[in-house]
Amino acid sequence: MIDMAMRIGLITTLGTNIGDDFIRTGLRRMVQEVFAGKEIEFVPVNKHEPYTAYPAWHPVRIAALAKYLPRGKGMAGKLIDALLATPALSKFEDCAAVIQCGAPVLWPGCHQCEWAGPLWRRIVGRLRECIPVFNLAAGSCYPWERQPTTVEDRADAKFLTAIHGYCRLTTVRDRLSRQLFDSLGCAVSHIPCSALLAADEPGSSSNGDGTVLINYMPGGGHYDFGQGVNGSNWHNTVRGLVARLRRRHRVAFLCHNETELNAASSVADGLPCHLPKSVAEYFAVASEAKAGIFNRMHASVGLAGMGIPSIAVGTDTRLLMVEHIGLPCFYVKDARLEQLEEKLEGLLLNRAQEKERLMGLRRDTMRSYVEAVSHAWS
Known about the structure:
- This protein is of the alpha/beta class.
- The protein folds into two domains: 6-197 and 362-377, 3-Layer(aba) Sandwich (Rossmann fold), CATH 3.40.50; 211-359, Rossmann fold (3-Layer(aba) Sandwich), CATH 3.40.50.2000.
- It is 42% helix and 16% strand.
- It is built from 13 helices and 13 strands.
- Helix 7 (231-245) links the parallel strand 8 (211-215) and strand 9 (250-254).
- The longest helix has 27 residues, at 351-377.
- It starts with 5 loop residues before the first strand and ends with a helix.
- The model has no long low-confidence stretch (mean pLDDT 91).
């Protein structure tokens, strides 16, 4: 008899941001640790294209296209509801488990996400009776200046309570996510983001006299969230910081997409700008770094898994995932040139100790995930 591979479904984001690849890669490493020696086949589904959870021939894929027609959204919804009135042949049907892979899960209006019905309610809500479902490395994304203490929207609260009920285990990567789930009476485990596990564990080198990497996003983050962030101020801060740092260090820019590459050119002043196309290429570039200053939170978390410290600057509560791993983080309005420079030099001065701390945290994080998932699976 031929042993079949264990199939694990992954609800994730594909082809959008390499940070999502870090989250997924870290969770894959963890699952392979849980089932060491077992052949595993991962079945990823892009949550932003939720009907790709069905085979290409499935009629629901055609029905979903109706939303692009004039007045097609209502028709699409009726067709899809009719087609899925009975159990459907999704890609997850023969999986041993389904894992929701990180990313923000809690934000204002989260119940309206495009995958809430197609993936959570119609597939996970049904399959959770048969197989374990895990929501791992979940995070929050609220404006930094308007952090809630409870889930204020009743529809959001209902959605979050429902998906928590579907899962045998929910882990969160920041303290606000834990607080909000607690406010709903939903028990969660607080473990660093799985992106910490994405890179290969480095050797004993302390990266020599490496490069200071900078990830620059106009305005300091994905969105302003109506907080009145002055993008020019952050632009000028980064330009001034680069001018100072390059006197003492090699400096380069690390970009996550073409938009960032173009933005970096406006502040780089002839310095190298890298745009890695894969996780392996990203960490190959990062292996030459000794520290970083990043607007992308998963740049901070991913490099921390290599023992490379950084400073995170952002606009929303995704900053809290960096806070949780003990690295400095700043709301963009509070990020002053002199303070960033001083913090960076402090990290470099204590680089050996910081690398040892971060590598210990990586090992503890892997152990926490393995123990939590193994316990919930059994």
